Amino acid sequence: MASCILVNGVSSGEVSALDRGLAYGDGLFESIRFVGGVAPLWSRHMQRLTESCERLRLPTANVAQLWDEALHVSRGLAQSVVRISLTRGVGERGYAPSMSPQPTRIVAAFAAPVVSRELYAKGMRVRLCDIRLAEQPLLAGMKHLNRLEQVLARAEWTDPSISEGVLCDIHGQVISATMANLFARIDGVLLTPSVDRCGVAGVGRAEVLAVCPQARVGKVTLDALLNADEVFLSSSGRGILPVHSLGERVFAIGAVTRQLQQHWHNLGFSMEQGG
User: Fold this and answer.
1) Are 142 and 180 in contact, with CB atoms under 8 Å apart?
2) Which CATH number is associated with domain 4-111?
3) Model confidence over 92-104: pLDDT tens digits?
């Protein structure tokens, strides 16, 4: 449960049944890790949100207003995740968007769930998901409100020992995990899948690419992934998550993973955190 929710700046847990975010998934969201009153990756989240608003033809978000509201809802929480949702607002029935939309702005804070120190140290078990991500370049990279593919992917397993699922596109190329981006060191080269046709361009992914200029973005086949030297997931909320195994394949936790975990710690995140 959220500890505090603001809807258009007013304390409330309700939106209109006619809101286009509810009717059509017409909107965007960001989930931002706060440590007290600090959000180390805030600027990256706001850059993605601003660019995505332009792509969806939504009014540009007021970043200063969002910051004030994020601080308000997260006040008193030592570790929190602030979710900012922007929709096109209430609209007439039908797909045609209003020429002058009045967006709905929802800012909510949640206590950050704890990810165990053991998982950061020893890595996580992941599985290959059956569902395939559909291609839509016009929406690729954005964190839009329609997450049905990820919902169905996460519903594929109930084993608590499996922490994540790997998602491929319709061609069988590796794209990401259900809630994180994926990196693999293959033949000595750090690679992450392209997300220009499907998938989310994660804020954690952007941070890794910024601090690892040698990393490459491109196609990653499942065979290549299974032959990787090391594999890790990046998440703005959970940091750098080593992958211990994918099915029967076991990976070593390598130096790149450990260096990036230290980088996350240096940003101000603890090695035992949530999100």
Assistant:
1) no
2) 3.30.470.10
3) 889 999 888 999 9
